[in-house]
Specification:
The protein has 166 residues and is α+β, with helices and mostly antiparallel strands. It has one domain: Aminopeptidase (3-Layer(aba) Sandwich), CATH 3.40.630. Helices cover 28% and strands 34% of the residues. The chain is built from four helices and seven strands, in the order βααβββαβαββ. Strands 1-2-3-4-5-7-6 form a seven-stranded mixed beta sheet. The protein is globular and about 45 Å long. The two termini are 20 Å apart. It binds coenzyme A. The site of coenzyme A has 20 residues, from strand 4, helix 3 and helix 4.
Amino acid sequence: MSKTAPIPQIEGSRIADLTSNPLKDQQKYLAEIQRIEKKHFPSSEALDFNAELKKRNTNAILVLKDVDGSTEVAAYLVYLRMKRLTLLHKICVAQPYRQQGIAKEMITLLRSRLEREGCGSVQLWVDEDRTAARALYASCDFKQVDRCPDYYGPGRTGLRMVLRLE
Ligand SMILES: CC(C)(COP(=O)(O)OP(=O)(O)OC[C@H]1O[C@@H](n2cnc3c(N)ncnc32)[C@H](O)[C@@H]1OP(=O)(O)O)[C@@H](O)C(=O)NCCC(=O)NCCS
């Protein structure tokens, strides 16, 4: 995706690939993402974005929002693209922007992109206790295919979910 598009329900917002922004803005957005990441995930699950996004087949979709003349990151989705399979690595919406359809919008965009490119499925792992994330994935047609006790550490079960693409 080289173009940006507004999200109608969020005034002053746009959705775009990280790399479609000027380099200096990319650095600023990455720093913001790292802050959001630290806030919402235990350190063992926090992605090292600088390392991760250097990989050729890793990509990030951002939702940006204009606030008082500057731009902030409202949400991000990171995925790893392989031939017939895509791994949805991470999705997060900053607290003030939740439950307004932003995460679903990002997954819908990813889905239509991957279908166009001929990718066969999207896979992810989610902590069984993350109820909001599970509701999101279910509403985007992901199906649970595996359940792995202690996947995220003692007592923390991981669910593997897959979205089959057309
Ligand atoms: C999970 C998360 C990304 C959802 O983002 P969001 O923008 O609030 O989700 P949306 O508004 O697009 O909602 C999508 C669907 O999930 C449901 N949903 C979202 N949050 C929910 C909640 N807290 N409780 C119940 N259902 C919820 C919505 O009702 C909606 O369902 P519908 O399409 O049937 O109406 C967000 O809560 C988040 O960032 N959580 C912390 C990080 C995380 O857990 N990431 C996933 C693991 S990597």
